[in-house]
């Protein structure tokens, strides 16, 4: 649905993004992840047709955003990072205007505006001026604006920025509800958000794509071993020793011990599930197994290891 | 047609704020006052013909009011959207840059046409009491229409260059006043230079209309001037590819 090939964008001598390539299949939700200034917004603006790339090309549903711009843009709903709306229009009026700009007749635009207001819970404020709305409502009007006209592709630049936790949850539910029906690219620098809603992640840093995969695959690729975290009531040194004898265990790292309990991280061969063997070994000695869980990398750790800011941090 | 959708939104924006009413009120007040005082002048000191004794002064005064008011009408057209950031969204809709330019231009132009038509109240009232030859008046109005449209095209272009409305209005004033005084330094230029300057001076071109003379060369000049600035505006929008969204 979206195919970006070797996108480069320069502003004067400043290179905002370089050689960015990726594809997004229909119905997918893809997260665009990177620190501020990584080139997320620049990439999304190119996708949305705000300005053309310096090099490379983008096709949206087969239409090139530069040479076949109007058709490409007709497929796209865009939510800009800086939510900017006409403050002097009412919500209903504004969304009708947006529908007409996207090529709907006046009547169809009104219907679309009603639908968009319903799906974004905007009915209570439909006759209020946009300028009098709170940040959360404006954000929703921005999303409704992107949804108007039922575009097949949604490009959302930080849709949850500046919202309170409840609104963030609502927004995620709204985006998650679009799965299968729409193709969505959303950018964020909030990692749990990506894990919560995205099928795949594109990690971008200093204008380059560092990784492009599912959160699970990224996790696997970056970690040569699997890890299991245990909390055991028992003598620390002996616990570690016993665990080392379990077949498949590559290493044991004891952590803080307190009150007769010890926390241990066990490195095991990748993709080998030793949880039951470990539990059996503990139980056989009569120690108390208080906690046992497989440990996956958080996106934060994946991200930091990729950008090289900090290696995978030790278990807390 | 998205051009008309844009045009309607602009008009909505004008009339949704006080801008439209203030500009309209001041324009009508000043041009009405000038019409009144020009008429008194004609009655007291009068010439032999209305065309050179009255109408010429009426339209020369009206051009001053138009120059005062129109840059304030056009200053927000692009500058406001750039400041708000709404330009960015506009560019993602399936609409051509040309439609954006013409839609905004049309909105300001329609507003101006309404303003101009309302000034006809004075001349119409006079015609009621004292029927006169309307041809010079129509010529004057055609001149005003062309001149005002030229102001709007120029103001629209300047507005597309900045996100600051004050800068937008001030630069437009600068350009228009320059076009006014461009032929006033008669000693400085040679004859050839003066002929060239007279050729591009908006106000010297306008002068013929105030005397009731419609010269196709003048009409062509204004049309070219308008088309030129609309083209520049269109080009100015394309600079976002290297300037970014502002």
Question: How would you sum up this structure, described in words?
Answer:
- The complex is a heterodimer of chains A (about 325) and B (about 250).
- Chain A has about 325 residues and is α/β, with parallel strands linked by helices.
- Chain A has two domains: about 1-220, 3-Layer(aba) Sandwich (Rossmann fold), CATH 3.40.50; about 225-295, Alpha-Beta Plaits.
- Chain A contains eleven helices and 14 strands.
- Chain A has a six-stranded mixed beta sheet, with helices on both faces. Chain A has a four-stranded antiparallel beta sheet with strand order 2-1-4-5.
- In chain A, a hairpin with a 2-residue loop joins β9 and β10.
- By secondary structure, chain B is mainly α.
- Chain B has one domain.
- Chain B is about 80% helix and about 0% strand.
- Chain B has 13 helices and no strands.
- Chain B has helices spanning about 1-15, 20-45, 50-75, 75-85, 85-90, 95-120, 120-130, 135-160, 165-180, 190-200, 200-210, 215-240, 240-245.
- In chain B, α2 packs antiparallel against α3 (about 50-75) and α8 crosses α9.
- The longest helix of chain B has 27 residues, at about 20-45.
- Chain B starts with a helix and ends with a helix.
- The model of chain B has no long low-confidence stretch (mean pLDDT about 90).
- The chains are: A alpha/beta (about 325), B mainly alpha (about 250).
- The interface of A and B includes residues 11, 76, 80 and 87 of A.
Brief write-up:
The complex is a heterodimer of chains A (about 325) and B (about 250). With about 325 residues, chain A is an alpha/beta fold.
Set out the fold topology:
The complex is a heterodimer of chains A (316) and B (246).
Chain A: E1 2-11, E2 14-24, E3 29-33, H1 40-48, E4 55-60, E5 63-64, H2 69-74, E6 76-79, H3 91-101, H4 106-119, H5 135-147, E7 153-157, H6 165-176, E8 183-188, H7 191-197, E9 200-205, E10 208-213, H8 215-222, E11 226-233, H9 236-244, E12 249-258, E13 261-268, H10 275-284, E14 288-295, H11 299-307
Parallel strand pairs in A: 3-8, 3-9, 6-7, 7-8
Antiparallel strand pairs in A: 1-2, 1-4, 4-5, 9-10, 11-13, 11-14, 12-13
Chain B: H1 2-16, H2 19-45, H3 50-74, H4 76-84, H5 86-92, H6 97-118, H7 121-129, H8 135-159, H9 165-181, H10 191-200, H11 202-210, H12 216-238, H13 240-243
Helix pairs in contact in B: 1-6, 2-3, 3-8, 3-9, 6-8, 6-12, 8-9, 8-11, 8-12
């Amino acid at each position: 649905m979206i195919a970006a090939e070797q996108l480069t964008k320069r502003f004067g001598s400043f290179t905002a993004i370089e050689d960015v390539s990726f594809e997004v299949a229909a119905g997918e939700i893809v997260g665009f992840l990177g620190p501020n200034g990584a080139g997320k917004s620049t990439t999304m603006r190119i996708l949305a047709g705000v300005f053309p790339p310096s090099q490379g090309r983008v096709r949206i549903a087969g239409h090139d955003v530069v040479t076949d711009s109007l058709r490409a843009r007709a497929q796209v709903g865009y939510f800009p990072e800086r939510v900017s709306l006409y403050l002097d229009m009412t919500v209903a009026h504004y969304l009708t205007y947006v529908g007409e700009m996207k090529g709907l007749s006046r009547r169809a635009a009104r219907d679309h505006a009603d639908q968009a207001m319903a799906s974004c819970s905007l009915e209570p404020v439909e006759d209020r001026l946009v300028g009098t709305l709170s940040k959360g409502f404006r954000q929703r009007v921005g999303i409704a604006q992107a949804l108007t006209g039922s575009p097949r592709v949604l490009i959302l630049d930080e849709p949850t920025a500046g919202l309170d936790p409840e609104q963030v949850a609502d927004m995620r539910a709204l985006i998650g509800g679009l799965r299968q029906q729409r193709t969505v690219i959303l950018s964020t620098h909030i990692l749990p958000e990506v894990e919560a809603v995205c099928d795949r992640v594109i990690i971008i840093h200093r204008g380059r794509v560092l990784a492009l995969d599912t959160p699970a695959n990224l996790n696997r690729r970056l970690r040569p071993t699997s890890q299991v975290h245990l909390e055991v009531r028992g003598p620390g040194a002996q616990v570690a020793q016993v665990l080392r004898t379990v077949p498949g265990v590559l290493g044991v790292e004891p952590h803080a011990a307190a009150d007769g309990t010890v926390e241990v991280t066990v490195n095991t061969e990748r993709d080998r599930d030793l949880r039951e063997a470990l539990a059996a070994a503990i139980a056989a000695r009569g120690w108390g197994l208080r906690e046992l869980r497989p440990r996956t990398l958080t996106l934060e750790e994946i991200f930091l290891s990729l950008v090289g800011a900090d290696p995978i941090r030790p278990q807390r | 047609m998205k051009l008309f959708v844009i045009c309607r939104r602009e008009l909505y924006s004008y009339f949704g704020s006080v801008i439209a009413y203030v500009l309209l009120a001041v324009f009508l007040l000043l041009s009405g006052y000038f019409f009144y005082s020009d008429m008194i002048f004609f009655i007291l000191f009068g010439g032999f013909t209305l065309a050179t004794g009255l109408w010429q002064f009426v339209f020369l005064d009206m051009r001053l009011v138009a120059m005062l008011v129109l840059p304030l009408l056009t200053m927000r057209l692009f500058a406001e959207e750039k400041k708000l950031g709404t330009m960015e969204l506009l560019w993602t809709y399936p609409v051509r840059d040309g439609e954006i330019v013409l839609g905004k231009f049309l909105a300001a132009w329609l507003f101006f046409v309404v303003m101009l038509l309302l000034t006809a109240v004075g001349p119409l009232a006079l015609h009621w009491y004292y029927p006169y030859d309307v041809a010079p008046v129509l010529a004057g109005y055609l001149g005003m229409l062309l001149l005002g449209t030229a102001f709007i095209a120029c103001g629209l272009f300047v507005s597309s260059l900045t996100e600051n409305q004050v800068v937008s209005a001030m630069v437009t004033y600068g350009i228009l006043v320059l076009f006014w005084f461009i032929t006033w330094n008669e000693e400085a230029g040679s004859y050839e230079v003066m002929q060239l300057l007279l050729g591009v001076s908006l106000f010297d071109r306008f002068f013929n209309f105030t005397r009731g003379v419609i010269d196709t060369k003048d009409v062509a000049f204004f049309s070219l001037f308008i088309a030129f600035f609309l083209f520049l505006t269109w080009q100015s929008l394309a600079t976002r590819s290297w300037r970014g969204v502002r």
